[in-house]
């Protein structure tokens, strides 16, 4: 039976307004759960941020959904509003530690089925490195980080330092877009999520490639980008062409941009068989991991169906993408699956 690991799902623990206020700033997120317990609202201070369902905070409900979908193991990571990168670094550390401990409590309900990635106070690299190591030693399978910290993209020297720390410590890293670029024009129809989010992810990948940062980061780093790498695969030909034709593009990048695809992986959340085929053609089947964005409505609702039903992928490629790649990437060989 094919192993199925969903390596990109989100959680938000049952954080009350009082607990959020003790740990964070005035707009620290908390969870308002409706009287029936089946739905709720993520709040940032007084402001309603987004409606959510019970699966976000209830591990038992997650297991029910996993069983229905045929998912053996699910890796959870923070809903990006939880990052706290704008907060005071000391408060952000306390917040990250609290969230990471809550996450392990959720996994304890079904340790053979649930695993988690830690969050870190990325605005202070020393604190971020220390918390990544602490959480990894405590049982987290890696860390999830946002794709930028304010104006600092992943090529910023401090973030390169963090990625190097993770490489040296053997800590896998998932990069998730957040705080999407917008100047007010993308004001309806979820356009920040549909346009800016893929662009943010491509920006992150290219910032590492074109800046020469990958030359300074150990090749041992296990690095994965969410949402299929955003618009990266589709526009890679444009980037290669620019590198060949414009010296300003290749100024800090010694090799053709497409030659760096072996330095990172991506998840499979692209929702279209033609897009998945392109992703596999660009990245290789060994660098595409099943990721759903569960339990949010912009995620894959029938988790794994895009890979399962693809008419052109070999059965071997499907096996790798559905579970084997994630097991190797996150060191899940010790997890006993339900299969």
UniProtKB/TrEMBL annotation:
A GO cellular component entry from the record: cytosol
Pfam families tied to this protein: Amidohydro_2
E.C. designation(s): 4.1.1.45
Keyword Glycoprotein part of the UniProt annotation: no
InterPro entries according to UniProt: ACMSD (IPR032465), Amidohydro-rel (IPR006680), Metal_Hydrolase (IPR032466)
Keywords: Decarboxylase, Lyase, Metal-binding, Zinc
Domain of life: Bacteria
Pathway stated in the Swiss-Prot or TrEMBL entry: Secondary metabolite metabolism; quinolate metabolism
GO terms (BP aspect): secondary metabolic process
EC class: lyase
GO molecular function, one term: aminocarboxymuconate-semialdehyde decarboxylase activity
Record domain Amidohydrolase-related: where: 5-332
UniProt family annotation: Belongs to the metallo-dependent hydrolases superfamily. ACMSD family.
Quaternary assembly: Monomer.
Protein name: 2-amino-3-carboxymuconate-6-semialdehyde decarboxylase
Protein species of origin: Paraburkholderia piptadeniae
């Amino acid at each position: 039976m094919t192993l199925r690991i969903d390596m990109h799902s989100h959680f938000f623990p049952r954080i009350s307004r009082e607990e959020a206020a003790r740990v964070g700033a005035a707009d620290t997120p908390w969870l308002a759960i409706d009287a029936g317990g089946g739905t709720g609202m993520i709040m940032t201070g007084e402001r309603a941020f987004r409606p959510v369902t019970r699966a976000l905070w209830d591990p038992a409900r997650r297991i029910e959904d996993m069983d229905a979908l045929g998912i053996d193991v699910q890796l959870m990571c923070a809903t990006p509003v939880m990052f706290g990168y704008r907060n005071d670094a000391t408060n952000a550390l306390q917040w990250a530690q609290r969230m990471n401990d809550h996450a392990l409590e959720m996994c304890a309900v079904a340790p053979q089925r649930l695993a988690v990635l830690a969050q870190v106070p990325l605005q202070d690299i020393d604190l971020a490195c220390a918390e990544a190591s602490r959480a990894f030693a405590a049982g987290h399978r890696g860390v999830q980080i946002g794709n930028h910290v304010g104006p600092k993209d992943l090529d910023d020297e401090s973030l390169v330092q963090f990625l190097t720390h993770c490489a040296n410590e053997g800590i896998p890293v998932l990069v998730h877009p957040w705080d999407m670029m917008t100047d007010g024009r993308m004001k309806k129809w979820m356009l920040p999520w549909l346009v800016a989010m893929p662009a943010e992810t491509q920006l992150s990948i290219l910032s590492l490639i074109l800046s020469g940062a990958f030359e300074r980061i150990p090749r041992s780093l296990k690095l994965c980008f969410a949402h299929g790498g955003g618009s990266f695969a589709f526009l890679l030909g444009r980037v290669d062409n620019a590198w060949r034709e414009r010296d300003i593009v290749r100024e800090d990048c010694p090799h053709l941009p497409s030659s760096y695809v072996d330095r990172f992986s991506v998840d499979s959340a692209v929702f279209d068989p033609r897009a998945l085929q392109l992703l596999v053609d660009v990245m290789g089947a060994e660098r595409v991991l099943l990721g759903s964005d569960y339990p949010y409505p912009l995620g894959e609702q029938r988790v794994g169906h895009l890979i399962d039903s693809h008419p052109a992928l070999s059965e071997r490629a499907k096996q790798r993408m559905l579970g084997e790649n994630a097991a190797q990437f996150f060191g899940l060989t010790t997890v006993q699956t339900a299969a």
